[in-house]
Specification:
The structure holds two protein chains of two kinds. Chain A contains 13 helices and no strands. In chain A, helix 2 crosses helix 6. In chain B, helix 3 crosses helix 6 and helix 5 runs antiparallel to helix 6. The chains are: A mainly alpha, B alpha/beta. Chains A and B meet through helix 2 and helix 5 of A and strand 1, strand 5, helix 3, strand 10 and helix 9 of B.
Chain lengths: 285, 249
Amino acid sequence: MTDSTIEEQPETQSPLPRPLRMGEHLRLAFRDLDMGFADWRKWLLLGLNDIRQRYRRSRLGQFWITMSMAVTILSLGLVYSYLFRTPIHQYLPYLAVSLVVWGLILSIVTESCAVFTSAEGYIRQVPMPRSVFVHRMLVRNLVSLAHNALILPPVFLWFGVPVGWSLPLALPGVVLLIVNGIWVGLLLGTICARFRDLPQIITSLMQVVFFVTPIMWQPAQIPPHLSWLIDLNPFASFLAIIRDPLLGTPPPAGAWMMAGLVTVLGPLGTLPIFARFRARIVYWL
Amino acid sequence: MTSIILDRVTVDFPIYDARARSLKTEIMRRTVGGHIELREDNRRLSVMALRDVSMALGEGDRLAVIGRNGAGKSTLLRVLSGVYEPPVGTVRIDGTVSSLTDLTMGMDPEATGYDNIMLRSIFLGVSVEQARRSVADIEEFTELGDFLDLPMRTYSSGMMLRLAFAVSTAVTPNILVMDEVISTGDTIFMAKAEARLNRLIDKTHILVLASHDSATLRRLCNRGVLLREGRIAAFGPIEEVLKAYETPV
């Protein structure tokens, strides 16, 4: 190694090599997902630490999650059962399950927007699969769900909700929702890293979704000509496939079909976007 | 076989939130080694951080990265450690990489010393098993004793750095990337830390070090790369590259 070149490179240089083709992008994206699953210790540790960090040094700790949900359910339940003139023993269990499930959906969607931007410190320092940060968000939300779900048994006991054979059917619903969390996290995480106004827009949109989805009100309350509001609303479908079994009724087949459709179309739409921009995320942070 | 191969790597940073006009006036009186240009579509402004950079590093290479502020040193370090995947050109990295740029990054002041050993290790890309195995060594080296059971916010800044340094240097990577040589602690500890860092540098297969201190670069490196406006201006034995850097263009 003696020929160190100091001379300026000529201005007329050979053209730069072509950027990667889509096929190569896709291969790298699948590798990211693959390595992301394999790194389960990392996302488990990061996700659990998120919860610990949030409630460290508070006396109730993570049970504040449970407490604040309980307060919300009780106050809204009392007010709206009166406003809707629905007997409280019927309305409050419905509201409790709805709010717990909606809480999971809402936080998956809103926190998806920040999966990469909030991990800037990691992403800019170490080469880690991007999907690790999506799984971390899902771990965090599953822990929250476990704490919120603690409210349900006492509510069911107190108001004498019959617990039937359909109860275990809620589990596949939760699994399906989490599976969808993966593509939602990859998609929203990627585009929100690029367009920083998007998280605010999505938060506002979710407010609207909250009102048009049967969470506070029950599907039976809606006039027939507006039933498309439920039938075509994927949020309502995911809510139904988890909520209905818990309340002792099998969910409508349409809800399962809608949820299944989303589970197929979501990843199909996400994959090209994530593959194309995965390597670009770090430059946007 | 540890190796890094860069083939015609080009990295540009799109700028979305800056006014093109104000940047243009900035270009007129800049004194840094960077390169700002309009892309072909003439609408988007972007900073060319690296342009057409090719190099091959193998076992035993200790590479000094030299250049003025903004010449692309940090970008090159991030490409060499696998953090930046270049939009154009290819990078092949064979071997485990550890990047010691910010020692405390990833640590959580509210977590205990032991928790932070795990958190920081993960940050470095160390496997959980490896991190567990290095706990005893870190206990011994930091001399923090029972403090490791306390939240890190109770530590003095020196103690915190000791822990961060110990964890960061606990596992030998194949490739070690550093932005300036790290140093830490009081005088007695500093000697101990330097010995530990030197052992790490000796054991690692490839070292990449960016620094403005030519004495350090001469001591630790055998090869050098000089960057100017994101291009390789010189690549070769450390002495020659340092000479090229010190000669005004």
